[in-house]
Write a structure and sequence with these properties.
By secondary structure, this protein is α+β, with helices and mostly antiparallel strands. Helices cover 16% and strands 51% of the residues. The two termini are 21 Å apart.
Length: 121
């Protein structure tokens, strides 16, 4: 079973993009704090690459800003590719099927009313 659930903060504002075949998507990075402290007494943070597609991508780009807290449900995908120099590389990212906006600066500054259905995909 390949499931991911996590809560973290966006490290940059997500920008909506469109693929050559017309599919909308957004790539972003989420900072997720670990649940334990290291030897120095500090919580370490992992920076996870995330991608969303379609309506989830559109809502994420519309409502999320840098620093917003989001909950993500999705799966982990790993892909192999080769660089122009012939070097083999591996990339791992989270494919988010569902995003819950836990805090949003746009929500605080917006006159538009949003129901929970609009924000929780």
């Amino acid at each position: 079973m390949n499931n991911f659930w996590g809560v973290g903060r966006l490290v940059a504002r997500p920008e909506l993009k469109e693929s050559e075949n017309g599919n909308k998507y957004v790539n972003y990075t989420v900072a997720v704090q670990r649940s334990y402290k290291n030897a120095d007494g500090v919580y370490e943070t992992d920076f996870l690459d995330v991608v969303s597609f379609g309506p989830v991508a559109e809502k994420t780009a519309e409502y999320c800003q840098k620093g917003d807290m989001v909950g993500i449900k999705g799966r982990v995908e790993t892909s192999l590719y080769e660089t122009e120099n012939g070097e083999k590389k591996k990339s791992t990212q989270i494919v988010a099927d569902n995003i819950t906006f836990l805090s949003s600066s746009k929500e605080k500054n917006s006159d538009v009313e949003k129901s929970e259905d609009d924000l929780d995909m």
